[in-house]
Write a structure and sequence with these properties.
Blueprint: E1 11-12, E2 26-29, E3 42-45, H1 56-63, E4 65-70, E5 77-83, E6 88-95, E7 98-105, E8 113-114, E9 130-132, E10 140-143, E11 154-158, E12 166-169, E13 180-181, E14 189-192, E15 199-202, E16 210-213, E17 216-221, E18 228-233, E19 246-252, E20 257-271, E21 274-280, E22 288-293, E23 301-302, E24 314-318, E25 325-329, E26 336-342, E27 349-357, E28 368-369, E29 377-383, E30 388-394, E31 402-403, E32 420-423, H2 426-430, E33 449-456, E34 465-469, E35 486-491, E36 496-501, E37 508-512, E38 520-523, E39 530-536, E40 544-550, E41 558-564, E42 570-571, E43 577-581, E44 599-606, E45 612-613, E46 622-626, E47 628-629, E48 634-636, E49 640-643, E50 646-649, E51 670-671, E52 674-676, E53 683-685, E54 694-695, H3 702-708, H4 738-763, H5 776-782
Parallel strand pairs: 1-2, 42-45, 47-53
Antiparallel strand pairs: 2-5, 3-4, 4-41, 5-6, 6-7, 7-8, 9-10, 10-11, 11-12, 13-14, 14-15, 15-16, 17-18, 18-19, 19-20, 20-21, 21-22, 22-23, 24-25, 25-26, 26-27, 28-29, 29-30, 30-31, 32-33, 33-34, 35-36, 36-37, 37-38, 39-40, 40-41, 43-44, 44-46, 48-52, 49-50, 51-54
């Protein structure tokens, strides 16, 4: 999954269509006639409505509503970031072949002042051009658009939330999207330059840079040590994605000293205390195995997880709770795989969920960590027997998974075999399902989840509605007011929920003060306009809602609407809170105990009926009481799977090709069948039977040990000479053999391309499941009424893949539309950044 960023967030819109999971910047676009633009920059403040009969709540909201019009600005795209903690917002409008315009607000978006002169009215990159430090959001970077390869990059640097900017002209051209922020020190940055992929380091937030190395491929900071970073290098200087010719280095920032810690590397990932590397599996052409280190690469252990072939991939889904969730692609290439979970060392793994959906369309996955309740994850699973996709949830860090129950009283279409809740996420979005927001949860709002979903036996193309859970996903409601897709946001630590329809023009904000049970409406503008997104200050503690959109039928200008809900609620008092037991709704093992993850956890949260304000200083208090251990506090160990409450031998693993030698020595791997969940707090009670120990693997031979250590054995590292001929160095004189070498290279490439074409043509003749997206018009015509037949998201009518992993379309045998294949030649093993 992605690294949590507390102070910033990203939503990507194109006329209100959201684009990504995780968060940095709000980016919005519109399409309109520039002749209809307003002529002057103006700020409109709605007057307080004091007429007779006016509702007191509505009047209080009108008094605290501000609308800012970005008039006389014809740029069709706008990006926004929160900076600092005092209500500062920076907004940047941009257009192709036009200068950008920069605005600053110091009052949560109520009004903006143009400060374009501080960046010399330059054109800022529309993508990856506006950046903010996750450590200190007062630190902001703007990257100037480079229109020629002969130009070098220019940065505008602010360390005071955009109050001032310093310009710095670099001696290299930054590769878009490669600036990496240190997660612990706001001043340290890494970036890769175009050309030779030269890696640079900055100690002063981009004002000055020092060269580290050429031919850098992947770059990541250590999440726990601010003076350490890692990068992979192509020692031959070819810089081709994929392959096993990369070396992994660990560097210190003090003197830029780098140490090689692995070679023959395919990719690597790091989060928490885990450093993973995917390396070539010696003797198996194209195959690779994963190694893990808990000491920054000083020592390595081969992960007890299946080795994968050339057409498969690993993906690290999450490593944030002292354990690892890793997806291992299935060998049949049908767009799914198996989730494994690790022990505390990250070496021994257990099968957690089979048939996990993970197709190769932009490396997307529906895997989601619920921030509002520890141990809860949601994802999607393929059911191949019926070619359908359904949602699965775990409340115990992957120990057990189950389908999601629909709201009480739900009525599913008669054609449905089952009636469950299915949550739409990245995969649905890629198929054209109309969702304006992905799942949303926050640590400050205990138990609350908002999501677009449908009920039935599988995900479908029907227009989804908004569903809400206030107990971490155990139970859900579907408010009648939130039918259809909506933008939504969480405020006041869950004391306020906001929603605005995304399917039509609107002037209405819907809000709830009781966790979504009841909803009120507030009209914020005299006429409807196109809303493109909502924003609440990061942390979801504020009562101020920001709404962005543009008046498509009026002047065509961008508008920022700010509404503060503080005056409709009094501060909460002690009697407004109640004790709430987390996981008390758990039904899977309810007969055993009410604890989960070894503890009885009780939170203090606001009563549903209490119409009061939590305030910015509110933090959910948790009282933890340890429980006696039961079988639910244990995962099934490697080679075992759960059957109800028992862990039994998994016969499907008997033929597994795992021959991992832990700690580089010959040893017998023994198991009790159970392994305690990392972070589980139980004590006493159930313990695995020590008299029942099984040996899962024979002793490793010396040859097998050497095979497993390939790539991480420092005593056998390869020394590479510097690249012979550098195409990027104009001062270097080519040798007399350059022409001959170039001719040979061309011939080899031509022969290689022909061979690859033949191999791929044969490879794609295999049958796989095809995921077919309907067009927008088809979505509309296939919407069904309650009780009708739904349309599944999965379609196996054509089982012949016809495209490579980068989405290049080719004609299939019938001349039909091509589809994306599933991580063929994947070069994105480690997705954690």
């Amino acid at each position: 999954m992605n690294v949590k960023v507390d102070q910033v967030f990203i939503l990507s819109f194109a006329i209100g269509i959201i684009g990504t999971w995780a968060s940095d910047i709000i980016m919005m676009e519109k399409s309109f006639d520039t002749n209809d633009m307003a002529r002057t920059l103006t700020r409109v403040i709605r007057e307080t409505e004091n007429g007779s009969g006016a509702d007191a709540v509505d009047a209080a909201l009108k008094k605290n509503t501000d609308i800012h019009v970005f008039a006389n600005d014809s740029n069709p795209s706008i990006s926004m970031i929160w900076s600092g903690t005092r209500g500062v917002i920076l907004a940047l409008t941009s257009a192709q072949f036009a200068n950008s315009r920069l605005y600053r607000s110091v009052n949560f978006g109520s009004s903006f002042t143009e400060i374009s002169s501080q960046i010399h009215n330059d054109r800022i990159m529309s993508s990856h051009g506006m950046l903010v430090s996750p450590v200190d959001t007062e630190h902001v970077l703007l990257v100037k658009e480079v229109i020629s390869f002969i130009q070098y990059s220019v940065l505008y640097v602010s360390v005071d939330s955009g109050k001032t900017f310093d310009q710095t002209k670099l001696k290299f051209n930054i590769k878009p999207g490669t600036i990496a922020f240190n997660p612990l020190n706001s001043l340290k940055l890494l970036s890769v330059a175009l050309g030779k992929n030269t890696l640079y380091l900055s100690y002063d937030f981009g004002l000055r840079w020092k060269r580290v190395s050429d031919y850098a491929m992947q770059v990541k900071w250590d999440p726990r040590e601010s003076n350490t970073f890692y990068y992979t290098k192509d020692p031959m200087g070819r810089m081709m994605s994929g392959g096993f010719d990369k070396e992994l280095y660990r560097c210190t920032t003090a003197k830029i000293e780098c140490t090689k810690i692995a070679e023959h590397v395919f990719s690597f990932g790091i989060q928490g205390g885990f450093l993973f590397v995917s390396v070539e599996y010696l003797g198996q052409s194209g195959s690779r195995v994963m190694h893990v280190s808990k000491d920054a690469g000083n020592s390595w252990d081969a992960a007890q997880i299946p080795a994968i072939g050339q057409k498969q991939f690993y993906s690290l889904l999450d490593m944030s709770e002292g354990m690892v969730f890793v997806h291992v692609d299935n060998v049949d290439g049908k767009g799914d795989g198996t989730i494994y979970t690790s022990g505390e060392r990250g070496i021994i793994y257990s099968k957690s969920l089979s048939n996990h959906l993970y197709p190769n369309m932009g490396s997307l996955t529906d895997f989601y960590k619920v921030s509002s309740l520890q141990g809860v994850y949601i994802t999607s699973q393929i059911e191949h027997d019926h070619d359908t996709i359904h949602s699965m949830i775990t409340f115990d860090k992957g120990g057990t998974w189950q389908k999601i129950d629909p709201p009480k009283g739900s009525v599913c279409p008669k054609s449905e075999i089952e009636c469950q809740l299915h949550i739409h996420s990245l995969f649905s979005k890629s198929k054209g399902v109309k969702i304006a927001e992905f799942m949303k949860s926050t640590e400050s709002a205990t138990g609350i989840i908002l999501a677009h979903a449908n009920i039935g036996d599988a995900l479908n193309f029907n227009t989804p509605d908004v569903y809400i859970s206030n107990d971490g996903g155990y139970t859900w409601i579907q408010p009648e007011e939130l039918k259809g897709p909506h933008y939504y946001a969480i405020g006041d630590s869950g004391g306020l929920l906001f929603a605005v329809t995304s399917s039509t023009h609107t002037s209405i904000i819907k809000y709830s003060t009781d966790e979504g049970e009841t909803w009120q409406e507030y009209t914020f503008f005299e006429r409807p306009f196109k809303v493109t997104g909502l924003s609440v200050q990061p942390g979801s503690k504020s009562t101020v809602l920001g709404l962005w959109g543009w008046d498509e039928k009026g002047d065509g200008a961008w508008r920022s609407v700010t509404v503060d809900f503080k005056d409709i609620m009094e501060p909460c008092k002690k009697q407004d809170y109640v004790q709430w037991k987390a996981h008390e709704s758990n039904s899977l093992f309810a007969n055993e105990h009410e604890c989960l993850l070894g503890a009885d956890v009780i939170f203090t949260r606001k009563k549903k009926g209490a119409r009061c304000q939590n305030g910015k200083n509110f933090m959910p208090e948790a009282k933890i009481k340890r429980c006696q251990c039961t079988k639910t506090d244990y995962m099934c160990d490697y080679g075992y799977s759960r059957k109800r409450t028992e862990c039994v031998r998994d016969t499907a693993m008997d033929d597994s090709p795992l021959d991992i030698c832990i700690d580089g020595e010959e040893e017998t791997i023994e198991t009790l069948g159970y392994r305690k969940i990392p972070g589980d707090k139980c004590e006493g009670g159930f313990a695995p039977n020590l008299s029942h120990v099984e040996t899962l693997h024979k002793r490793c031979t010396k040859a097998e040990e050497e095979k497993e250590d390939f790539g991480v054995d420092k005593s056998h590292f390869t020394e590479y000479p510097d690249p012979v001929f550098d195409l990027n160095n104009a001062n270097q004189k080519p040798s007399s053999n350059v022409g001959l070498i170039a001719l040979l290279v061309i011939l080899v490439l031509a022969l290689g391309s022909a061979l690859i074409y033949v191999i791929r043509k044969r490879h794609y003749s295999r049958q796989r499941v095809k995921y077919v997206a309907l067009s927008t018009s088809e979505h509309l015509t296939n919407d069904v009424e309650s009780g009708g037949e739904s349309t599944s998201l999965i379609d196996d009518s054509d089982l012949t893949p016809t495209a490579n992993r980068r989405g290049n379309r080719t004609a299939n045998g019938n001349g039909g539309q091509g589809v994306a294949s599933y991580h063929d030649d994947s070069d994105e093993d480690m997705l954690v950044s």
